[in-house]
Known about the structure:
- The protein contains 9 helices and no strands.
- The protein is mostly helical.
- The mean pLDDT is 85.
Amino acid sequence: MTDKPFMPKATAVWLVENTKISFKQIADFCDLHELEIKGIADGDVAKGIKAYNPILAGQLTREEIEECSKNSSKPLVLNKKDLDIKSEKKAKKYIPLSKRQDRPEAVLWLLKNYSQLSAGQIVKLVGSTKNTVVAIKNKSYWNSSNLTPKDPVVFNFCSEIDLRKAIEKADRKIVRDRKKAEKEKKKSAVSNS
């Protein structure tokens, strides 16, 4: 069987405990042997395996289970709906050599226009290194006299949305730090009096 459910033994445990589906149907669906399913039902196999609900996981529908309970010759079919799960980690985008020299200029633009951004945020936005960002900020970058600020969005180093999110995050951090400093000041004023 090419389409196996996720965590087949745990799914089999759940199906044995919560449905009236035949051992053969469960075995075929989970790609396990029918005797293994009988062993799960008897409590000899899969001891300590926590049952995994295939309905909540989107692998089966209640209707499918009910139909298979009534007709023991009908095989269980894996629900192949597309889950809308996007990876948090973005794939690195290839930047041509001709544009890579523009990174330090994009860093300079961000430092001039959004000084609240941390070096780490600039690194993520532009794809540069922390050392480069710090060197440009301190004007110790090897080519700093020849740099002209250039918008990273124009050069496709980051999207406008990513830039906006980073700015909002940096602004929230400034507000948090300010509130924290005020609390500390009040605390020290109270303890001194």
